Each structure stands twice: as C-alpha cells, then as structure tokens.
Amino acid sequence: MAAKRKVIVTGFEPFGEHAVNSSWVAVQELERLGLGGEVDLYVCEVPVEYQAVQSLLPSLWQQHQPQLVVHVGVSGLATTVTLEQCGHNQGYKRPDNCSFSPASQCCVESGPDCIHSVLDMDAVCQRVNNSGLEVSVSVSQDAGRYLCDYTYYTSLHLGRGRCAFVHVPPLGKPYSSQDLGRALQVLVREMLELLQDTQEQNQVHRRCCQHRH
Hints:
Blueprint: E1 5-12, H1 22-33, E2 39-46, H2 50-64, E3 68-74, E4 81-84, E5 86-88, E6 114-116, H3 121-129, E7 137-140, H4 147-158, E8 163-168, H5 177-212
Parallel strand pairs: 1-2, 1-3, 3-8, 4-7
Antiparallel strand pairs: 4-8, 5-6
C-alpha cells in the first residue's frame, strides 16, 4: 500500500483590522472537508510574529517531514483567491503583533533575494479555474513584505521550494468560509498532483541521463 502523503496547511491568527482572520477560518473549513484518505493533513495556526515564525517553521518541517506545506494568509486588497509564486528575503519593516520587526529587515541572512516555489502557480491557477469551482483564482509575484511573505520565504528556504502560499480575501468579500475551504481543498489537491507529475518527470529524466552515461 502506498504511504500517505503528508501535507501541512497553516492560517494566521487575527491582526490589525482583521479581528477574524479568514485564512485560519478557511483552513479550519479545509480540515473539516479533508483531502481524502490518501493524504494525511495537519493544520496549524501561525502567530503574526516574526520570532514565532522563526521557531515554529523549522519544527513543522522537521517533525512532520511533509511532501508539501501550504501557508494561507488574508489580504484586505484581494478579491480573488491569490496564489503567490515567490517569497522575498528583504524589506520587513512593519511591526508585528508584538510591535517587533527584525533589525536586519530580512528572513535569512545572506539568503537569495527571492525564492520561487517548485510549483508552477500559473498551471495550478489554470487547472482550478477550469475545474468549475465557483471561486476565482489568480497569481501574484508579491506576497506583501509582512508576515505572509516572511513566512513564505522562510518555508521555501526550509523546504527547498516544496511550499505554496495562498492569499484569501476577508470573509464575505465576496466568499464565505465554505467557499474558501472548498477552494483550498481543490487547490491543494491540484498542487499535490502537479508535484507528483514533476517528481515522476524528474525520475524519468534522471534514468535517461544515467542510461546515456
């Protein structure tokens, strides 16, 4: 029997004007829906604190050894469910829930300026928008230089790119918690499928290379 694939999905605690953070509400809805019997889903609420992220994420990756980590955050500007293609290392000036911001204004000292997910978000977006889901999905290259971007970059760095970030609008603008949970379910399944396809292609490529040599 094939081993279950482990997926971690996180949302954030309330902050600023977001007294209810739709990201964590959506993740809890996803937990209720599940990802099917072949996927082991673990969900977690992330504090809106730079130092908490620095201690939490390494333990999540090490303890669970997931195939994929999907972070979900709220964007007050978003009107679609937005897939972020990359995380940025620098520019973190905005104070967190503890009124703290990193002195270096960066995630990983001497890390690359930008890390891209191994997942092609344009492909994920296209698949989901063609699936009949009644939630609109788009792609972005800028996760906003706050805890969302900070978390994404740190996780991409830890997981060698096997990570995704999804921005969701506030509840009711225009989607309900059920809409967002269902959207996350479809997105994560598509991401897992794409990840598996990519891994299989890489294995075939390696075998071909070995054969030629």
